[in-house]
Amino acid sequence: MKIFNKFDLKTTIIISLFPFISILGIPIYVYNYGIVWQEPALLFLGWILSGLGITVGYHRYFSHKSFRANQFFEWIFMIFGTMAIQKSILQWCSNHRQHHKKLDTDKDPYSIKKGFFHAHVGWILENKSFPIEGVSDLKKKKAVIFQDRYYWPLTLVISFVLPILIGFTYGRPIGAFLWGAIFRITLVHHFTWFINSLCHFVGTKQYNFNISARDSWYMALFTFGEGYHNFHHTFEWDYRNGIRWYDFDPSKWVVKFLSYFKITYDLKVVSDTNIFKAKLKSLQQRIEFATKKYSVSETYIDTLNEYIKKSFQQLEILETIEKKYRNFNVSTLNEIDRKKINFKKKFHTREIQNAISSVMMMLVNVKALN
Questions:
Q1: pLDDT band at 366; cut points 50, 70, 90
Q2: pLDDT tens-digit profile of 173-204?
Q3: I need a labelling partner for 234 at 20 to 30 A (CA). Which of 65, 132, 205, 206 fits?
Q4: How far does the chain reach from its first CA to its final CA, in angstroms?
């Protein structure tokens, strides 16, 4: 049968066993032996460490180089990432860089265009290999090479043997194995894969309307802040995913916290003006889409485009102000001059935000009227 030729049987069985044992094995074990606090603690702590190993380590650091870090960081987050059992750093980053480079095309390893199941887990189960390419920079890192050489022994010891040994310390090795290994790995796997599937399926497109990636605040709750996916695909080199102070992005907080101890440094951040540019371009794309899909009068379209035009004009002024004072020591100015600069920036920022809000409301009305 074609389906057996398409999928790798061994990989499919192994990947399926994790949720299968979690769903059936844990309730049976709990029914017979109850729960002790150490087991949910193992699950929670392991989920945090391995999850951050992927989001902070594999993703934002090794894949996108959105900040720099010392070797201590590289070794620790290599270990945390290994706990997640999502292949080596070289393979993971190679696939992920290809995903960004070939987004929404046939060459995207986990393209949503091939369906939700394919983007979520199907691409992993397929009977095909993915070449490791475009990661020559990572081959210079000792932690990465060490992991690649000893990946499976490391995985077995860290992800399976260690929880069992911890379980022996309180007399429940099977419980520790079920909670600290099987159930934890199931959660980390599927929450990570939801970024490739759900975050390309539901949510908003504030920064690039023409790509499948979407921002989803509720997915950020389960993925250590990775849910703001439209922003990430627009500005992949920014160490943040959630850019507002109230956005739930623990990965960002960890990177920032470590920077106070010089463990991480050179944190890359996109400028406010470039964020506004992306939002305005996305609105232009949305207007173009709306005019093709819905019946919209020429007057309405002209009004929308006029708002966009005025926003770009305000943005040019804002850029001029920022360029003028970028290399200038603002601290040498007196209080009045500093207030004038901040007032100008806030004024033009507010004008752009108001224009964006107006266009969004008008686009909502277009959809509602049709």
A1: low
A2: 999 999 999 999 999 999 999 999 999 999 99
A3: 132
A4: 46
Identify which has the larger pLDDT, 94 or 9: 94
Closest CA to 93 of 125, 48, 136: 136
**pLDDT surpassing 50 at residue 370:** no
Q: With beta carbons less than 8 A apart as the criterion, state whether 65 and 140 touch.
A: no
The share of the chain scoring above pLDDT 70, in percent, equals 92
Which of 140, 124, 137 has its CA nearest to residue 63?
137
Judged against a pLDDT cut of 80, whether residue 355 lies above it is answered with: no
How much is the pLDDT for 87? 97
Q: Count CB-CB contacts under 10 A for residue 345.
A: 16
Distance CA 329, CA 219 (A): 41
CA angle 312, 318, 323 (to 5 degrees): 125
> Exposed, middle or buried by CB within 10 Å (0-12, 13-18, 19+), for 232?
buried
Distance CA 119, CA 230 (A): 16
Q: What's the rounded Cα separation, in Å, for the pair 11 and 8?
A: 6
Single-letter residue type at 93: C
Q: Give the side-chain half-sphere CA count within 13 A for 183.
A: 22
State the maximum Cα–Cα separation within the chain, in Å, rounded to a whole number: 78
pTM: 0.89
Residues across the chain: 370
Residue with tokens 């920036």: 345
